[in-house]
Amino acid sequence: VQDRRDLRHDGRIHRHAVVVPAGYDTAQFWAITLTNTPAGEIFFVDDLNVRDNTANTATAGAITAQAYASATGIMSFVSGDGTLYIGHGDIDVSSDYFYGVGVLASTSGIGDVTVVGTGDVTVDAAQGATGIWAYATVGGSVSVDSGVSIYASTKYGDATGIIAQSYGADVSVSATGAAIDATSTYGNATGIEAYAYNDAYVY
Fold first, then answer.
1. Cα 85 to chain center, whole Å?
2. Fewer beta carbons within 10 angstroms: which end of the chain, N or C?
3. Helices (H) and strands (E) in the chain — how many of each?
């Protein structure tokens, strides 16, 4: 696996791109913090961007994201044509002053988006909270299979358990978990929002 590192004026690495050579269909890599990270503090790869190909994000362990600003458990995009698959375990997201999302997944070209949950998603944020947000902006279908509990709570913004959007194809949402609990003190609260260019299925 080859890598490309971008340096800024402070000499630290701010972005690290991993290139998988032709002929290899999978790759494993580890992220190591280069800043002073206290013992026991969680850091994680926040973005996964793939151009004209397939992105797969699978997490077996728990994810915790906590911030004063916006916080996201998993954020994954395909910039161009290609499919996106995310399988997640437990996710706990909190933001003291802004927005929080448990899973954010999208494609900007022709390609499907699939999110499969095997762990609970909990989001608590001041200005808005969404458990799972998956969308395809061009010609792909969106599928969300959540067999777990989703909790989204906020004070001033809107709270939504699942948002699934397809601007050119179908949407399927399977929510067979224990509960979807969306709560907002001053905004709107919705369990599931499903938007499709063609057919939308919620069950």
1. 10
2. C
3. 0, 19
Q: How many CA atoms within 13 Å lie on the side-chain side of 13?
A: 10
User: How many CB atoms are located within 10 Å of the residue 152 CB?
Assistant: 31
User: How far is it, in rounded angstroms, from Cα 28 to Cα 190?
Assistant: 38
The residues near 188 (Cβ < 8 Å, ≥ 6 apart) are: 158, 159
Which one, of 17, 87, 77, 10, lies nearest residue 47 by Cα?
Answer: 77
Question: What predicted TM-score, i.e. pTM, was given to this entire model?
Answer: 0.73
C-alpha 134/C-alpha 145 separation (Å) is 11
Of 97, 81, 91, nearest in space to 133 by CA? 91
**Predicted confidence (pLDDT) per residue in 89-141, tens digit:** 999 999 999 999 999 999 999 999 999 998 999 999 999 999 999 999 988 99
Q: What is the DSSP letter of 65?
A: E
